[in-house]
Amino acid sequence: MARRPRRAWAAAPTISSPACEPCGPRSPWWNTTGSFYRVPPSRFAPGPAQSPHPPLLLDGSAPAALRRAGRLCDGWIASSKATPAAIRDAIAVVRDSAEQAGRDPAALRFVCRAPVRLRPRPAPDQPLFTGTADKIRADLAGLADTGLTEIFVDPNFAPGIGSPDAPADEAARRVDLLLRELAPTTW
């Protein structure tokens, strides 16, 4: 039986390893073998439009994951369930780690998904990004000083939109309403 790695990340190819070469502009044929993985000869085509590779964003909230994102990645993805204070603190760790690794923290992307659920009336104790358009706008505004560079509004968790059982015309109507309600008033 193969020996088990101490951590899952230890078994995965590193960002600078040959296992990530398909992300770059090299030959469309690629294979690699590591201690815990083997990729047989595979075709990787067409190559990425970005050079040298697509942006690599890491999520995770453990201190080691945050430091890894700063050292190795192009940015970090925050949990949509994290508080603004937790996001702010995590971004500080990622930026500090990038700086310690000799990287420019200002070049990093910080992203959060906002799984919105628009409701016609307010209700007590609604989760983040759930409620009236005013409440959702206030929730989004609460993320303004966290250091996030991007927030994407994701309506797919609303049952009337993202459920496979939702009628397509009704889902489209709800998405249109959501877009009208949450559209920025200035560009």
Brief characterization of the structure:
This protein has 187 residues and is of the alpha/beta class. Helix content is 32%, strand content 18%.
Description:
This protein has 187 residues and is an alpha/beta fold. Helices cover 32% and strands 18% of the residues. It is built from 6 helices and 8 strands. It has helices spanning 8-11, 63-72, 84-100, 133-141, 159-162, 168-182, and strands at 29-33, 38-43, 57-59, 75-78, 109-115, 117-118, 130-131, 150-154. The strands form 3 sheets. A 4-stranded parallel beta sheet has the order 3-4-5-8, with helices on one face. It has a two-stranded antiparallel ribbon with strand order 1-2. The protein has a two-stranded parallel sheet with strand order 6-7. Helix 2 packs across helix 3 (84-100). The termini are far apart. Mean pLDDT is 84; it is low at 8-19.
Uncertain stretches: 8-19
Q: Could you say which structural class the secondary elements and strand pairing correspond to?
A: alpha/beta
Give a quick account of the main beta sheet: strands, pairing sense, barrel closure: 4 strands, parallel
Percent helix? 25-40%
* Estimated share of beta-strand residues: 15-25%
Rg: 20 Å
Give the overall average pLDDT. Answer: 84
For the biggest β-sheet, the strand order reads 3-4-5-8
Shape: globular
Along the chain, the helix and strand elements come as HEEEHEHEEEHEHH
Distance between the termini: 59 Å
How many strand units? 8
Number of helices: 6
